[in-house]
Amino acid sequence: MAHGPATLADGWRAYISRWVFTTNHKDIGTLYLWFSFAMFLMGGAFAMVIRAELFQPGMQLIRPEFFNQMTTMHGLVMVFGAIMPAFVGLANWMIPLMIGAPDMALPRMNNLSFWILPFAFAILTSTLFMEGGGPNFGWTFYAPLSTTYAPESVNFFIFAIHIMGASSIMGSINIIATVMNMRAPGMTYMKMPLFVWTWVITAFLLVAVMPVLAGAVTMMLMDINFGTSFFDAAGGGDPVLFQHVFWFFGHPEVYIIILPAFGVVSQIIPTFSRKPLFGYSSMVYATAAIAFLSFVVWAHHMFTVGMPIAGELYFMYATMLIAVPTGVKVFNWITTMYKGSLTFETPMLFSIAFVILFTFGGFTGLMLSIAAADMQYHDTYFVVAHFHYVMVAGAVFSGTAAIYYWLPKWCGKMYNETMGQVQFWVAFIGFNIAFMPQHFLGLAGMPRRYADYGLQFADWNMVSSIGAFIYGGAQIMLLYNVIATIRNGKPTTEEKTWEGAEGLEWTVPSPAPYHTFEKPPEFK
Amino acid sequence: MSTDASNRRVVVKSLFGAAGMFAFAIFVLPPMYDLFCEITGLGGKTGDEYTAVDVRVDTSREVRVRFLASNNASMPWVFKPTKDSVVVHPGEPTEITYFAHNVTDQDMVSQAIPSLVPNNVADYFHKTECFCFENQPLAAGDQADLKLVFIIDPDLPAGVNSVTLSYTIFDITDRAADPIAQL
Ligand code: HEM
Ligand SMILES: [Cu+2]
Do A236 and B113 touch (CB under 8 A)? Predict the structure, then answer.
């Protein structure tokens, strides 16, 4: 065949080669999205194990050692395997379409940055079957738990993190190059869609902090294998140093996760409000401000390590400052909806839920940022509830919204609106039943990361587990909806799937042809 | 400029930035952290060997110095101060000892790591001699009195009437035998 991608009709070999050697941004975006969904299901399965064990007090299903591996792997897989690659997938698919570019700037590097990921996660997951088990020291892998007291498999964990870091850095460089060099004539920076803006800023954050994560695991590697003592007090090192290095990466990381989600919601809300986004330039500046501030607040994760009072106060005020640009964004989304002619299709439902629940998570974040109060909240379920509100109701809801929003453009089929809305309500209700009670548990003093708990926590834990199972079920429904749409959804060939949608991605046919914008479009 | 050339420039600059951040994490952050702790006296790390310059003894003031000892993780030695506390005048050199006993049937090497509370006065606690400046080998079954001579600085902020010095003893036998770790 001369042109176009190989399909199954060309035989298995051609079909597999197409995906392995592809340099097409849409193919790579698709690979990223499917991979991240697979990781999402795996991380979700770990979460189900955790919640099943916590359904009742006492140990019923698994041993505590395995429980620790589950909490660690759940966090690692969800952050690095599900959320981050999902948004890289969206970036691959949508950024070239949104800025009128024929492809990503560096297509072969794009292929590489995707294909090393499955290896990283194969290595990471294989540690569960090794002698001594997989990583059991929490997704934040604090030394010396992750060095002196780590299981044998820790070296594989370190190697996997290195690969993920390399993949993210390459992916980010690609996005930066694409946005800087491949925009259609007339597309100035201040005319770029917000999803593109939030992603470039995220890419800069990634290039800056993924190497710091690589540095942290490299120092661990040296402490474990080569007798250095970066984090070992016996040799003059300091375990608290680990926490500083980790959170210097870790706090920007949470914004890496949420900024592209902000971008998605900033695309969807105007579409279904049939109004342009309110305060476009303030959105851009707020995003940049959040990214900048994220570098100077890291020790709010460390209020209890014994910082001097001046440090506590500085990190407290700096953290609270982030709420200002975040508040600007929330204000703009709400004002965009204000007096709009709203309709509530599935992507819009997820986006509105995002705004409400993310704001809620921001408020619990503000509570945690009060250094004096954090002495009580730290390392309790309150923190777990906080970050699930911002990461799940934030990043995952916005990712789900993105799937429903752009799926018709990707495959030229319309999803079933009723099924989409049912899935939304199951997810929304399940999510809140699962995580709202965790606030109460945390305030009442239930510590996180334990396989068992006191009897006084029994009721809310059972409620939380039931919610978690419902929320897990909602993800199976999402998978079903996507597959059902691809296989026998109602075909749609309209360029503009949503009447209120604006932007270059809605000027190409549906499904988007394999090659688009080979001649740069006119953009006014 | 062609797109290819500008792409290449983005790649080179970004990789340069990434490599810089990696180096920053490994080579700059740890020394910066140590320096910060040293300047502020945070972390309760006491200073290196001190040569007494000030002979003034402030007999009008008394400071109680308490001693603690703990063993890291699986360190099996018996390790404890021979006195729980002493009362000293600022400026006056005082000698105390810690008792260590290697109860195992193996020759071992240890290292003691100090920490001082309240940690903002670490700069006012001077050690002219300390077993913690070197590592301490003990043959199987041996015991030793480990010597420490300290001076409380006469400039110790008013209001501080007592300080607590604690040592944690670590087993560094493997490390002491490892040539790389000696670097
Ligand atoms: C107004 C915004 C926010 C504020 C003020 C805030 C504040 C905080 C504070 C103070 C903690 C530490 C609590 C403790 O460990 O005791 C924390 C933990 C956390 N936050 Fe936020 N946060 C905000 C937004 C976010 C966002 C947007 C995300 C990610 C999408 C996020 C993810 C996390 C995570 C993952 C943790 C827990 C890390 C761990 O210990 O495992 N936060 N937050
Ligand atoms: Cu943070």
Answer: yes
* Ligand 1 pocket list (CB less than 6 A): A 140, 254, 257-258, 300-301, 319, 322-323, 326, 362, 365-366, 368-369, 374, 377-378, 383, 386-387, 390-391, 394-395
The one-letter amino acid code at B142 reads: D
Q: Are residues B32 and B52 in the same domain?
A: no
Query: Tokens representing A11?
Result: 């035989």
**Same domain flag for B31 and B73:** no
Of how many residues is chain A composed? 524
Instruction: Pick the atom of ligand 1 nearest to A138's CA.
Output: 41
What's the mean pLDDT when you consider all of chain B?
A: 84
Environment class of B51 (CB within 10 Å of its CB; exposed 0-12, middle 13-18, buried 19+): exposed
Based on the fold, state whether residues B113 and B178 are members of the same structural domain: yes
Task: State the closest ligand 1 atom to the C-alpha of A374, by its place in the atom list counted from 1.
Answer: 16
- Residues in chain A within 8 Å Cβ distance of B22: 211-212, 214-215, 218
Distance A300 CA to ligand 2 centre (A): 6
Contact assignment for A234 to B7 by CB distance below 8 Å: no
For residues B97 and B85, membership in a common domain is answered with yes
Residues of chain A with pLDDT under 70: 1-3, 524
Q: Which amino acid is at A517?
A: F
Is the pLDDT at B182 greater than 50? The verdict is no
B158 CA: distance to closest CA in chain A (Å): 19
Instruction: Tell me how far the alpha carbon of residue A374 lies from the centroid of ligand 2, in angstroms.
Output: 13
Answer yes or no: pTM beyond 0.95: no
Please check whether residues B14 and B56 belong to one and the same domain: no
Neighbouring residues of A45: CB distance < 8 A, sequence distance ≥ 6 = none
Residue B46 pLDDT level (bands cut at 50, 70, 90): low
Instruction: Indicate which CATH number applies to the domain containing B123.
Output: 2.60.370.10
Q: Which of A301, A324, A364 to mutate to test the pocket of ligand 1 (most atoms within 8 A of CB)?
A: A301
Do the bridges between strand B94-101 and strand B78-81 make them parallel or antiparallel, or are there none, so unpaired?
antiparallel
* Strand order across the beta sheet in which B94-101 lies: B78-81, B94-101, B143-152, B125-130
Contact B170 A238 (CB under 8 A): no
CB B119, CB B113: distance < 8 Å? no
Give residue limits of the domains in chain A: 24-507
Q: Are residues B28 and B77 in the same domain?
A: no
Annotation: CATH topology of A24-507: Cytochrome C Oxidase; Chain A (1.20.210)
Interface test with A, best of B26, B40, B123 (most A CBs within 10 A): B26
The region, left, alpha or beta by phi > 0 then psi within -120 to 50, assigned to residue A234 is: alpha
**Cα B111 from chain centroid?**
10
Q: Tell which residue, A198, A338, A331, A329, has the closest CA to residue A274.
A: A338
Residue B14's region, left for phi above 0, alpha for psi from -120 to 50, else beta, is: alpha
**B27 and B74 co-located in one domain:** no
Pair A496, A504: CB distance under 8 Å? no
Element (H, E) at A258: helix A239-273
Domain co-membership, B27 together with B70: no
3-state secondary structure of B128: strand
Domain hosting residue B31, numbered range = 1-40
Cα separations in angstroms, A94 against A174, A250, B36: 14, 27, 45
Across chain A, mean pLDDT equals: 94
Active site (catalytic) residues of A: 74, 103, 139, 167-168, 251, 253, 255, 266, 300-301, 326, 329, 448
User: How many domains is chain B partitioned into structurally?
Assistant: 2
| Cα B180 to ligand 1 centre (Å) | 39
- B171 contacts in A (CB within 8 Å)? 234
For A276-324, write each residue's pLDDT tens digit.
Answer: 999 999 999 999 999 999 999 999 999 999 888 889 999 999 999 999 9
